[in-house]
Structure formats: structure tokens, C-alpha cells
Amino acid sequence: MDLLRFSVTWDYRCPFARNVHEHLVRALDAGAPWEVTFLPFSLSQVHVPEGGTPVWEDPSKAKDLIALAAGVVVRDRYPEHFLAVHQALFAARHDEGLDLREADVVRSVLGGAGAPGEQVMTEVGEGWAQAEIRKSHEWAAGELAVFGVPTFIVDDQAVFVRLMNRPGTDAELARATIESTVALIVGRPELNEFKHTTVAH
Question: What's the pLDDT score for residue 156?
């Protein structure tokens, strides 16, 4: 397959985002020929009532953005560590049940994944990553009606995707899963909704 270019939204709070992003990380680590843009998207903001204070302007919600902001800092400042950090933050939340609203927890996860945790958290404190989250979220929600994670964006098409499986160590499964998903988005735009009535075991 030729080079694929697409974007995928994420928030570490969502288990289905974890599933999709594990496929992405596993396949990219194995050399998948994709150009992926990882877009932060705040689930906290999604749940702000109409007319309410946006999460990025509400000091009481600042902790909700810590892990997402840390991911943005690593993505933009330490990209060589991003895939490892990305997977580690998802694992911390969903496999270990850690509270990613706590700065010390996030700092520890960053260090465990090989990133400079102290430097990353210093940049989180500067606020530019939160501004980037806002910009990304408002663009996706405003221009493409994105409402959640994980959403794949291919050209001008945005599609919310819910994968039930995780790739484990199987890079071929990961690559095939993502490529078939993107192929469906591109090749069958008339298929607006496709959902099993029961969960396969």
C-alpha cells in the first residue's frame, strides 16, 4: 500500500482510543508506511454544558488536561519518545488504573517510558500545550463535527471508530487493522454507520 496520510484524535481517558492507538503504535514501531498526525481532543470539553466555561479556561478542570498536555509536549518537543510515552500513558490509565490527573503520576510514567519527565512537566506548566489542545479540539469539532475519540480524519472525512480488539505484539494484525479501517473510510463513504448488535468473543 502507498504511503497513507491520516489523523487520529486521542484522549487518554477513553479505552477505545487505547485500542486504536495501540494498533497505531505497534504498526508504526514495525515500520508501517504511514504519515499519522496525532490530534489531542478533550473529552472533558465534550461534557461541558452549552454556555459553560470551556475546560481550558476553568482552573478547576486544569488537572483533566495534564496527561493530554504531556502527550502534546512529547509529540512536539521529544518526538523520538512519543510512541513509547503514548502507549505508556494509555497503559497507566487502563491497565494499571492510575490517576493521570496527578502530575507526579504522569511524571513517573514519562520517565518510565524514557522521556525527560521533569522537562516535559515544566513545559506542561507553561501552558502552551493546553493552548494546542484547544486549537486542535476546536478545529476538529468546528470544522469536521468531531465529537469524540478515536476519530480518524482522512482528507475532509472524519469517522469515529470503535475497535474491540488490541494488537498485543502482533504488528501485522495492527497494520492490517488500521489499513482496512482507512480503506473503508476512503472507499466506502456512503457507509455511515456499521455496528454489530452483540460483541464478539
Answer: 92
Strand partners, 17: none
- Smallest Cα–Cα separation from 100: which of 68, 125, 74, 147? 68
**β 34-40/4-10 pair status:** parallel
In angstroms, rounded to a whole number, what is the distance separating the alpha carbons of residues 70 and 110? 8
Burial 47-57 (b: 16+ CB within 10 A, else e): eeeeeeeebbe
Q: Is the model's pTM score more than 0.85?
A: yes
82-94 and 15-29 are packed helices; what angle lies between their axes, rounded to 10 degrees?
150
Which mean pLDDT values do the consecutive 10-residue runs of the chain (201 residues) have? Answer: 89 98 98 98 97 96 98 98 98 98 98 98 98 98 98 97 97 98 96 89 68
Q: What is the DSSP string of the chain?
A: -PPEEEEEEE-TT-HHHHHHHHHHHHHHHTT--EEEEEEE--HHHHTSPTTSPPGGG-GGGGGGGHHHHHHHHHHHH-GGGHHHHHHHHHHHHHTS---TTSHHHHHHHHHHTTS-HHHHHHHHHHSHHHHHHHHHHHHHHHHH---SSSEEEETTEEEE-------TT-HHHHHHHHHHHHHHHHH-TT------SS---
Which residue carries 482510543 as its cell?
17
Q: Are the C-beta atoms of residues 123 and 73 closer than 8 Å to each other?
A: yes
